[in-house]
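Tokens as discussed.
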């Protein structure tokens, strides 16, 4: 595990922001940990040792800039145009045997963790061809780290994005007078503006929902998770210029934007956490 941490620290210095920022993924992982059953916790320890889930949640982003892991790039998001459904996206990749997006990647990791030989061979072959070293020397540990991460990503509305602006990366905006872009606002800026540690943040949003609501979130399908992201994404696009106070200026987000959207961010982080727990409890039951 020492090795994992040193690799992680090294890569962190060259890491650009690609998905929920580091704390977004940690918050989801922390909430997930609180909702795991004993059996799943045990499986986690066997695969990833005495680590917090929050410690491995960002590993797939850290390795992403390494040449050997380049092939995992499309696993962090999915592209769904405005007039498309998730069904259309699934159809687009149907005849393609490779893993093309976050939805397919989640399903691949799920299969690997359940012991599916074909899925395991698929990832092992990719790692071998690309000389990418599995986490902890284990394909299952690697799959677990990816699953923890990607379930988070798909809950970030701009990760179920549109091609033309690269999920909001090309839309420059001001956030409290600093230039950024819509993607990064949603990955990082809103979360960091709360000035909470990831554990404080996780504590503040956990257990706000009733058991019934948690069960309902856990019963939704991956396609529904992605659909919710699309609905939120459209709200983000539709209100973009409501926050422009100068003409013709960049959309300028500050307190009002933070106030309007922080409930959505909290909800997505919470849903990501409890759904990930539900999925893992189901896999390891
Ligand atoms: Zn990511």
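Sequence:
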């Amino acid at each position: 595990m020492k090795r994992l941490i040193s690799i992680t620290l090294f890569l962190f210095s060259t890491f650009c922001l690609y998905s929920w920022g580091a704390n977004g993924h940690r918050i989801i992982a922390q909430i997930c940990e609180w909702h795991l059953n004993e059996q799943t916790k045990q499986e986690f320890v066997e695969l990833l040792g005495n680590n917090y889930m929050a410690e491995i949640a960002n590993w797939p982003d850290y390795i992403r800039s390494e040449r050997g892991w380049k092939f995992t790039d499309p696993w962090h998001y999915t592209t769904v145009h405005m007039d498309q459904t998730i069904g259309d996206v699934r159809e687009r990749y149907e005849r393609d045997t490779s893993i093309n997006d976050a939805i397919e990647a989640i399903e691949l990791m799920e299969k690997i963790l359940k012991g599916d030989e074909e899925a395991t061979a698929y990832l092992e072959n990719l790692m071998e061809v690309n000389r990418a070293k599995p986490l902890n020397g284990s394909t299952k540990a690697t799959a677990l780290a990816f699953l923890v991460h990607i379930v988070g990503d798909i809950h970030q509305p701009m990760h179920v994005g549109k091609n033309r602006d690269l999920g909001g990366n090309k839309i420059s905006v001001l956030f409290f007078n600093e230039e950024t872009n819509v993607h990064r606002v949603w990955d990082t800026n809103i979360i960091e503006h709360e000035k909470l540690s990831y554990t404080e943040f996780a504590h503040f949003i956990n257990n706000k929902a009733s058991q019934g609501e948690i069960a309902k979130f856990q019963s939704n399908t991956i396609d529904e998770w992605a659909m919710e992201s699309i609905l939120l994404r459209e709200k983000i696009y539709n209100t973009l210029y409501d926050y422009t106070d100068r003409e013709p200026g960049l959309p300028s987000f500050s307190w009002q934007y933070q106030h309007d959207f922080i409930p959505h961010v909290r909800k997505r982080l919470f849903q990501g956490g409890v759904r990930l727990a539900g999925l893992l409890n189901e896999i390891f039951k």
